[in-house]
Amino acid sequence: MTDIDVKLNEGESVSVPAGTTAGEAISALLSNKQRKRTVAVKIGDDIADFTTALTESVTLTPVQIGSNDALDVLRHSTAHIMALAVRELFGPDLKIAIGPSIENGFYYDFQRAEPFTPEDFDSIETKMEELIRQALPFSRAEVPSSEAVSRFSVEDEKYKVELIRDLGIDTVSLYQVGNFTDLCRGPHLPNTSFIRAFKLLRVAGAYWRGNENNDVLQRIYGTSFFDKKDLKKHLHALEEAKKRDHRKLGRELELFTVKDDIGAGLILWQPKGAQLRRLVEDYWKDEHYRHDYDLLYTPHIARQDLWKTSGHLDFYSENMYAPMDIDGIAYQLKPMNCPFHIGVYNNRKRSYRELPIRWCELGTVYRYERAGALHGLLRVRGFTQDDAHIFCRPDQLEDEIFNILELNLLILKTFGFDQYDIYLSTRPEKYVGSDENWDLATDSLKLALEKKGLNFEIDPGEGVFYGPKIDIKIKDQLGRSWQCSTIQVDFNLPERFKLSYIGADNSEHQPIMIHRALMGSLERFIGVLIEHYAGVFPLWFAPVQARILNITDDQAEYCEKIFTQLRKGGLRIEKDLRNEKLNYKIREAQVSKVPYMLIVGEKEKENGTVTVRLRDGKNLPPMAVSEFIDKVIDEVSEGRGI
What we know:
This protein is α+β, with helices and mostly antiparallel strands. Helix content is 36%, strand content 27%.
């Protein structure tokens, strides 16, 4: 039998017979301590489990506990154990669909007549623990697709049969653990003994293959870790996330609501939420004006022909709403603001001396989202983008990208986000524009990031077809990532709409167009803000900055006078003059997360002062109303970085 060389990425190698499994080869190269921490191997960029037969000389990288790759293998394997446990507990009538690992966990989809309940989770987890203690191996088999179809047809596993037929390949891989076999690419753990800390979390409905016309399945979610301490930490974070859920806080703080009779995915901003949104918008507009942008306003609908020219009907129609007939002409709600800004640009001839042109708009757009994907403010059907488009010459591109990054990071920092991951996405396989332009744009994005001193990752081939882009994912107080900011260079729309400017040589040239959104959308950004701050907003953009509380009715008239004075002083103020006990009113103000409570009793009335109480329970010395106004103004200015 032919021998092959198997090499560790660190340099050690061993000669083994062809057909030796990855597990056998890696065991010969690792110490006993390393073997205990290794759950799979990497061959090139692909992760493989220990059962993989090696037929040629390769370099192996151990996938060890502590890495994200190892967690992914663990969670995928835990999903299969959960499916095995469910099958053994609830019988063969239950149908099993798919069960991948996902971010922070895993799930499996089941078809079952009766709904799963939280009480079922206890018995499922007990059965899983029993199976795990048996150290059951995960075994892989490559079989002809026809054989797999026959097998799953006999077992009446219609979802597996459908998947195999749709794959359209000659051979598929099956994985078996215990008496459960599933269609699966793998990889999996060597055996179940590596599963040490897991928890089933919730059950939800899910359409088969995400299509609302298909069967509704039951999806059981869970998570898994190699260490019980990590599981405990994760479960604590989940509980904290529940407390911060913007939908819950939005209801409790009376920020926004969604009504079925108005429509799913359409946000109704209540007065306090509208005030919060106005504060975000005003800050955004002020900073853009200071950074030499001009504001535009554009319509919500346009003739369908515009979307044909822009290409949206060709590549984005499934996200657009049906056309409407107006005077015999087809119109559609806008999914993007770009063509309108182009319309302003094309309003007259442009000179190279005018460039760069920077236009921004808080433009509301409408995109179709499936009902199952809607999620509070984070996924809606009508939302307002903090949009901007820059038209510039090629020699201006790098500076413009740099300036966008400066403004972007300033705005994020002002709102309390200073942790983020940055990705530079490069040319995909299918693209428009010349290689020369792509190289220019990609280099400009890269150089601007480097000039700004930012760490970033290259995301090869993940640019959009019309140009490369930068994506910034901000991190909140819980360390969760949120996609908000994007900067995209576009060669497509300038060509489609025949944009031009007169250059210094008196000839026509095509400008470069930059799309950018710093918050992404106001709805999503405010949803993230609510969860980031758990509703405890900094004073400068708190919807209500202070609430006046009287002790008895004798101070009501003085409180009304204070209320008027504070409003005229520019403060966002409420009053609670109900005939209730003071402690009750203080507690309600704290639950509402109001930054300051102004308590007024007979002493304050006589002295013309207020006693200031913070939402954390601390008290400040009594002060004159004018002094409190100055204090708030100073704190707001500091918060906004003015």
